[in-house]
From TrEMBL:
Name of this chain's protein: LALA0S05e04896g1_1
Example GO BP: calcium-mediated signaling
Family, as annotated: Belongs to the BI1 family.
Membrane topology: Multi-pass membrane protein
Main location group: membrane
PANTHER family: BAX INHIBITOR-RELATED, PROTEIN LIFEGUARD 4
Pfam families to which the protein is assigned, alphabetical: Bax1-I
Chain positions covered by the region annotation Disordered: 1-33
Biased composition (Low complexity): 21-33
Membrane-crossing segments per the record: 69-88, 100-120, 164-184, 190-210, 222-246, 252-274, 286-305
Cellular localization per UniProt: Membrane
Lineage: Eukaryota, Fungi, Dikarya, Ascomycota, Saccharomycotina
Length: 310
């Protein structure tokens, strides 16, 4: 081999992977390592996993998030309907609910307040950088980080354990108010509504997680805007019916409108929780889906109850 001046040069040494320095191998990892099995990949740091939305995280984080959301949701639904079943089988509890109607309104107000608290409570990461000095570039956690966060966080901040306890309290309040349906509707109508609601929820969830029915975030926000307007319309009609009543045809139309609104709510919420939320917000997401399903069940129950009366 010759250089441009014409002098002879020795041939290059034979390639040997064992001769590559360890620092060089670390600085230039094998690009095919990305395609290794999922069990052996752990290249995403924890601060990245929790500082971006779920859709931007590793597939393991997304599956872990989905599992936690639907585990919490299943516990909420099972405990609520188990409480309703207990009320339907216990005349003493039924007498207590009938004779202490003020407790129903107290549970409803407590449920609304706990729902609002869970919705507005800030995440710990929202205050970590400001009050602890911990950033993505920080290598060592400051010694007084926990103390700073403890003294500077707002009064309505909730730890993870506090969120779980408040979610349990919210579910208990909702279960108590939901148990009123056992005093109004017969068991056959309730079981029919449960079956229809379960079928609708499974179908909507399957559509929402499918790429075939994926909607853009902009379109979802637009739909959400109109859903909120429809929700306020439902609230207004419901409040007016308390004072002025509602005939059977208007009531049936109102029930179908409510079922349609919360069906779309469930579809949009299922898509948005995997795009706009963070991996540590599974409690808030479970509560949101729980409200969608419970309201959908109540409107379907109202439709079936009206059809049986007619």
């Amino acid at each position: 081999m010759k250089d441009p001046t014409g002098s002879s040069l020795p041939p290059p040494p034979a390639y040997n992977e064992s001769q590559i320095p360890a620092t060089s191998a670390a600085a230039n990892p094998n690009p095919t390592s990305y395609y290794q099995s999922e069990e052996t990949r752990d290249f995403i740091p924890d601060d990245f996993k929790y500082s971006v939305t779920v859709t931007s995280c590793d597939s393991r984080v997304r599956r872990w998030f989905m599992r936690k959301v639907y585990t919490l949701l299943s516990c909420q639904l099972l405990s609520s309907f188990a409480f309703c079943f207990w009320v339907s089988r216990s005349p003493k509890i039924q007498d207590f609910i009938i004779n202490h109607q003020w407790f129903f309104f107290l549970a409803a107000i407590a449920g609304i307040l706990s729902c609002v608290w869970l919705s507005v409570a800030p995440r710990a990461n929202d205050y970590a950088e400001e009050y602890t000095g911990l950033t993505h570039e920080t290598q060592d956690v400051p010694a007084d980080a926990d103390a700073n966060l403890e003294t500077k966080k707002p009064w309505y901040y909730l730890s993870y354990r506090g969120q779980l306890l408040l979610l349990a309290f919210f579910t208990l309040c909702q279960a108590y108010t939901l148990s009123m349906v056992t005093l109004v509707y017969d068991s056959r109508t309730i079981l029919s509504a449960l079956f229809v609601t379960g079928t609708v929820v499974v179908g909507i969830t399957a559509m929402a997680v499918s790429d075939r029915f994926e909607t853009s975030v902009t379109a979802s926000n637009t739909i959400y805007y109109w859903l909120n307007l429809a929700l306020w319309l439902l609230i207004g009609i419901g409040l007016s019916s308390i004072f002025f009543g509602m005939n059977s045809k208007v009531d049936l139309l109102y029930s179908w409108l409510g079922a349609a609104v919360f069906s779309v709510y469930l579809f949009i919420d299922t898509q948005l929780i995997f795009r706009k939320v963070y991996p540590d917000e599974e409690i808030r997401c479970a509560m949101m889906l729980y409200l969608d399903i419970i309201n959908l069940f109540l409107y379907i129950l109202r439709i079936l109850g009206r059809n049986r009366e007619d």
